[in-house]
Specification:
Layout lengths: L3 H4 L11 E5 L6 E6 L13 E4 L2 E5 H6 L1 E3 L8 E5 L1 H15 L2 E6 L5 E6 L4 E5 L2 E5 L10 E5 L5 E5 L3 E7 L11 E2 L1 E9 L4 E8 L1 E2 L2 E8 L7 E6 L5 E8 L4 H5 L7 E6 L1 E11 L2 E12 L1 E2 L2 E3 L2 E3 L3 E5 L2 E2 L2 E3 L2 E3 L4 E5 L7 E3 L2 E2 L6 E5 L5 E7 L3 E3 L5 E7 L2 E3 L7 E7 L9 E3 L5 E7 L4 E2 L2 E3 L2 E4 L13 E4 L4 E5 L4 E2 L6 E3 L9 E3 H13 L1
């Protein structure tokens, strides 16, 4: 059994064979190295490419799998060691390995040419443990996956305030950098401190997939669990910022973040010349790249904070399931700059909050969700299709809200049902659980009733749409009248014909009878 540090030692006495089977000095796992015979200039990185005398060896396990054990870089998951240097070393290797390489070769016609080559994706693998660090810098490496052995078995524990884990494609780059694609997290817990402002900050990330990622411990008054700016076209499964399920936040220091997930507009940084007080100066300006958009969130848990999910600026994001629950202010808050977001089968159970949902967005859709306290609509075109709802409040700033095929007053909390002060509201097939009946339909803010449902008395000036006559009618204090002032009276039950007819129609019928 030969250890890697012994074989590649400057004083090594082992022969330089073409293929050697070794044991990694840090992880004690078996590794195979093959002598490199190419012409490229290599650097001894201490892990994958190793130098022995005048020869270079390459780790064939890595070339086959693309996976590197972080402990091979000297990291220790003992909750004591500062792994700053080890993690930075691993990231530096990945960044260098992922860079575009130009290699020489032969074209089919025999001419010498240069080829652009991109190497395969890389996975940095963390065995179970708690890995302390202080500042590992910003990560913006394409085709990189940071993966833990098991979910909640691997904790990346940041020992300073500010941002615990930063993945920012646009940081400190004035050259209009591209989005960073395929930057993934899997089976990772990121832990902060009482003064952590953001646990995971991501900007300009796209086409990425995160699964089983949890965050905990941050500033109680300002801290954000997941802060995404301009993140697009990515999938996020089982993101967790939850004092309901995380034992550290539940029973430990209880440094519960203020917000769980925040979606926001992203920016690149650019430098431009400006005249300030008569002098030309170079200033940094933010160039917007768009809202967080077209992302899919599966079964996320944002629980026990002031705000669960805050869609400040986000478009066309879809949430499947998930629980913005147990929050003290709002489980979900959507601002006016957010458009066409969709929630399917999500659970909003925030009994001690101001409201489960505060929606000031544009055309949000809720499909078969439930909210145990109140859904509060202030924006444009929000649509609720199916599900159990306790109370729905539609403010006068809301336009074209649609509530269809739902049950209200479902939970054992005080409820006024549907409070509608909006414009062009549509209410259809809404069942009141307490009353055990369906409430009157309303289309574009007009109540729609058939003749059998129409009340005999109502407030003066109130309007309904008569579904038998297929037109609006008003109550004048004594009778229902149409737009011409004709009284709508009971006539005959003629099956498919209207049960009610206007006085004008009676007069016309009488004239025709006399003529004929």
């Amino acid at each position: 059994m030969i250890f890697t540090e012994d074989f590649f030692s400057p004083t090594s006495v082992y022969p330089s064979e073409d293929l050697v089977q070794l044991v990694d000095s840090f992880t004690k796992e078996n590794v195979n190295y093959q002598k490199y015979t190419g012409s490229a200039t290599l650097i001894d990185d201490g892990v994958v490419y190793r130098k022995k005398g005048n020869d270079f060896y390459v780790d064939t396990n890595f070339l086959t799998s693309g996976q590197l054990n972080i402990q091979r870089f000297g990291a220790k998951g003992d909750d004591l060691t500062d792994n700053n240097a080890a993690i930075k070393r691993a990231l530096a290797f990945c960044e260098n390995y992922r860079k575009e390489r130009i290699i020489s070769g032969k074209a089919p016609n025999g001419m010498d040419v240069l080829y652009h080559q991109f190497d395969k994706a890389i996975t940095i693998y963390f065995p179970n443990g708690i890995y302390r660090y202080t500042d590992i810098g910003n990560i913006k490496i394409e085709n990189l996956t940071i993966k833990g052995e098991t979910f909640r078995g691997v904790v990346l524990k940041c020992m300073k305030g500010g941002i615990a884990l930063e993945m920012n494609a646009f940081k400190d780059d004035y050259s209009s950098p591209p989005f960073c694609k395929n930057l993934n997290l899997n089976n990772i817990v990121v832990e902060g401190q009482y003064n952590t402002e953001v646990l995971i900050f991501a900007q300009g990330i796209s086409h990425s997939n995160w699964e089983n990622v949890a965050v905990r411990e941050a500033d109680k008054d300002l801290g954000i669990g997941f802060y995404f700016k301009g993140v697009m076209l990515s999938g996020f499964k089982n993101l967790q910022c939850s004092s309901d399920v995380d034992t550290v936040m539940k029973t430990g220091n209880k440094n519960i973040p203020y917000q769980g997930l925040k979606l926001d507009h992203g920016h690149r940084i650019q430098k431009e010349k400006q005249i300030i007080e008569g002098e030309e100066v170079i200033v940094e300006v933010l160039n917007g790249i768009g809202n967080c958009s077209n992302n899919s969130f599966y079964d996320i848990k944002m629980e026990g904070m002031s705000f669960g999910v805050n869609i400040f600026q986000g478009d066309q994001n879809t949430f499947y399931g998930g629980t913005p629950e147990s929050c003290t202010k709002y489980g979900l808050m959507i601002s006016r700059g957010s458009r066409y977001n969709t929630f399917i089968g999500s659970a909003f159970e925030n009994d001690y909050s101001i409201a489960d949902i505060l929606d000031d967005g544009i055309h949000t859709v809720y499909i078969n969700c439930y909210a145990s306290k109140k859904a509060w609509f202030q924006g444009q075109g929000s649509t609720v299709l199916g599900g159990f709802w306790q109370e729905v409040q539609i403010d006068n700033s809301a336009e074209a809200t649609k509530i269809e095929n739902v049950t209200i007053k479902y939970f054992p909390l005080p409820s006024e049902g549907i409070i509608d002060n909006g414009k062009m509201t549509t209410i259809q097939n809404v069942r009141d659980k307490i009353l055990g009946t369906y409430i009157p339909n309303k289309y574009n803010a007009t109540v729609h009733l058939g003749s059998a449902q129409r009340p005999q008395n109502n407030s003066v000036g109130s309007m309904i749409f008569d579904t038998d006559l297929l037109k609006p009618i008003w109550f004048n204090g004594n009778s229902w009248v149409d737009a011409s002032g004709n009284i709508v009276i009971y006539f005959l039950n003629l099956g498919k014909y209207p049960k009610y007819i206007t006085t004008a129609a009676i007069k016309i019928a009488a004239v025709l009878f006399v003529i004929f």
